[in-house]
Structures are given as C-alpha cells and as structure tokens.
Amino acid sequence: GHGLEFLEAPARPSAAADAAQRFREAFGAEPAGVWSAPGRVNLIGEHVDYTGGLALPLALPHRTFVALAPRTDGTVRVRSAQEASGWDGSLADVGPGRPDGWAAYVAGVPWAMAQVDGAPFSGADVLSGGFDVLVDGHVPLGSGLSSSAALECAVAVALADLAGVDLRDPRASDAVRARLAEACVRAENDVAGAPTGGMDQAASLRCHEGAGILLDCRDGTVRHVPLDLAAAGLALLVVDTRASHSHSGGEYGQRRASLEAACAALGVPDMRAVDPAGLDAALAELPDDVTRARVRHAVTEIDRVRRAAALLAEGREREIAGLLDASHESLRHDYEVSSVELDLVVDTARSAGALGARMTGGGFGGSAIALVEIDAVRSVAAEIGIAFAAQGLRAPQFLPALPSAGAARDL
Ligand code: ADP
Ligand code: MG
C-alpha cells in the first residue's frame, strides 16, 4: 500500500534471548537474568498529573529488555542496542545530574532505590555492588510512549529481584511495585533531570495484562480497569508522528505555572478540588482568558477521566469515543499543547471512520491514539499515511496497543 509501517512488538521469549545474547557479546560473560518493562500510552487524563488529577494509562506490548549481571566492586557498565555510546563509572559518582546522557536512566535507579525509606530493597547489597547491563528497547525513543520509564522500570525490577524481593505475582507485589515506581520517578527527576509526574512509572510497573490503570495522582493509588477492547470489536491504534517535541520543555513549565497561579487565586490545593458543576463560577474569579482556558481544560479533563473509567467499568467501551474527542479539543484549543501533526492524525482518523481520537502524552509532537473498529485499523492508518504524505510530512509509525503486563523477569 502506501508504505504503512506497523511496529509490532516482538515475542517476549525471543526478545529476551536476543538481549541475553547481546550481553554475552558486549561483556563476554553470562547475564544473571533478563527482565523487561513496557512503554505506555495514556487513554485519557492529559496534563492533569501535576495538579492532583486522574489519568488512565495502559501498558503497551512494546517492552525494554535488560540483561544484567551484578558486580561487587561498585562499578556500573551500561550498553544499549539503541545507542552507540556506553558508560562505565562508579556508583559513588552517581547523583543529581550525574551521569549525563542516557546512562542516567540506568545508574540513577540504584541510587534512588537506596533512598526509598523502609522498602524491602533499600539496603540490598546489589544497590551498592554495581552491575553490568545490556539494554535492548522495543519502545520507540522520544515518541511520548515512555521509553524512559520502560528503561528505569526494567532496571528496577532486575535489582529488586536480585535483592530477593518476590515480584512474581503482580497483584501481591503491587505495594512494593509502587515503592519501585517512586524510586524510578526520583531517578528521572533528579538524576536525568526530567521534570515528569508519576504516570509513566506507575503504568510500566503496576499494569496487568488486559487492563488499564485509573491512577490517582494525589496519592499514587491505582485501580485496575479491565479493558477488553477486542471483545467490543474495537482496537486502539497508536500513531507515532515522529515529529520531535523540541519546545515542549519551556511550554510544559508555563502550563504548570499557570495552573499553580490559578490554584492560588481560587484558594484550592489543586484542580481536582474544583467541582466541575461550579466551573463557571470558578472561571469568573480568574484574571484573564488564557488562565481561564487552562483551568477549563484541567477541570473538564479530570471529569472526563471519571466518566471514562465509569463507562469502562460497565463494559461500555464504545461510549468513551466522545470523551477522547472532547479531550483532544480541550488540549488543542484550551491548553494549546497540540501540533500540526497531532491535529492531522486526529482529524484524519475521525474522517476515516475512527470512533474517537486524541493526542496523548505531553504534546507538541509525539503520539496520538484512535479508537477504531478492528476491521478498520488498516484503512484508518492508510488514510493517515496519505494525509501525511500530502502535507510533505515524514511518514508516521503505527503501533497496536493491546493492554499488556507490567515489568517482570523474562529469563
Ligand atoms: P520517551 O520516554 O517518551 O520515549 P524521553 O525523552 O522521556 O522520551 O526518553 C527518551 C530517552 O530515554 C532517550 O533519549 C534515552 O536517553 C533514554 N532511553 C530510552 N530507551 C533507551 C534505550 N533502549 N537505550 C538507551 N537509552 C534509552
Ligand atoms: Mg519519558
């Protein structure tokens, strides 16, 4: 057809075996094991994690694998199948801003795990002994599908497992997974220097196969929401625009600051505290149209997550389509974080028959999602490909998004 590029996730056993083989080639030794963690896509609840909101992400079948062997001399050696440069260093030299580059997402994890008070892994020898690790990722890097959290979380489960923490039952181990997520957030914020919320790590560590999670961003609690789209005849199509989100950093900070100022003006701790039924009265208290638009997004988006979760709990998957559309319009016009490419995916998907579509992730590039009839996946993707070609844009990449399991040991 039109050069449609579907990025299928490789089968876990063969991807794990590949990572082990790459470890042998890189280090000339056997790894102690192979662990993996998934990327994620957010179904709904965008740009509200930093204002006490709700989000509803699911884990992708696309995972990052780490083959790892512990050491005893405090040295860390990291290699990646996706990056030419590796890093060799000492754990003693890891800290805020150090090391720089992608190794921060690896070396920052034991540093942060050691600081989680009272967790069963905090004092483990493996956190100070160091390790050799080979990373092999199948989550596209920098596409808003959280390859960064997948990398951190794969390292975290590897180290926790080697420390003797039992993570085999995803339900029984949820509490300790929540502590690991805290450590991974800290590694990303403090060591890698990326000011992200906790959604990505919660999804990568705490999702179960066949479900999304309703994440309460006030306290980090999670409710598993069954998501059997296939049974409803539906599929979730992820579209990676492959457009860079280069100015997202400053814009992200401005949006956060705008909501913080609005909270102060309204005398509320976060946007979750604003009753959607009283939105007009709250808006009337705000100083300008831009702040009003930002607040309208946050308050209505949190409400849409509640509605989507309620519909999914009743098996009414089809009916979330309108909420996805409304979320996109809100992000596009009120929060102003969409882009030409994201709008093109959403508009084209809808006119090609998608039930609903929206940008997902931070915006300004990255990825979008479309809820489509299973039989229409290829035709909707084809229309999007044609629209991108007609605008002279780089061809997007498509990913199937079956809700998948959280981080675990593979070999
Ligand atoms: P996203 O999380 O949406 O993919 P980020 O910018 O948060 O985008 O994270 C991408 C960064 O994570 C990469 O630039 C790289 O530093 C690191 N990373 C992720 N996966 C890998 C990998 N397989 N090998 C090396 N580095 C990786
Ligand atoms: Mg990331």
Label the overall shape.
Answer: globular
Radius of gyration: 21 Å
Strands of the biggest beta sheet: in what spatial order?
5-4-6-3-1-13
Strand content bin: 15-25%
Category by helix and strand content: alpha+beta
- Number of DSSP E strands: 13
Total of helices: 12
H/E element order: HEEEEEHHEHHHEEEHHHHHEEHEE
- Helix % is 25-40%
What would the average pLDDT be, to the nearest integer?
96
Bound molecules: adenosine-5'-diphosphate, magnesium ion
Main pleated sheet? 6 strands, mixed
Give the uncertain stretches in residue-range form: none
Separation of termini? 38 Å
Keywords: ATP-binding, Carbohydrate metabolism, Galactose metabolism, Kinase, Magnesium, Metal-binding, Nucleotide-binding, Transferase
Protein name: Galactokinase
InterPro entries: Galactokinase (IPR000705), Galactokinase_CS (IPR019741), GalKase_N (IPR019539), GHMP_kinase_C_dom (IPR013750), GHMP_kinase_C_sf (IPR036554), GHMP_kinase_N_dom (IPR006204), GHMP_knse_ATP-bd_CS (IPR006203), Mevalonate/galactokinase (IPR006206)
Pfam family, one: GHMP_kinases_N
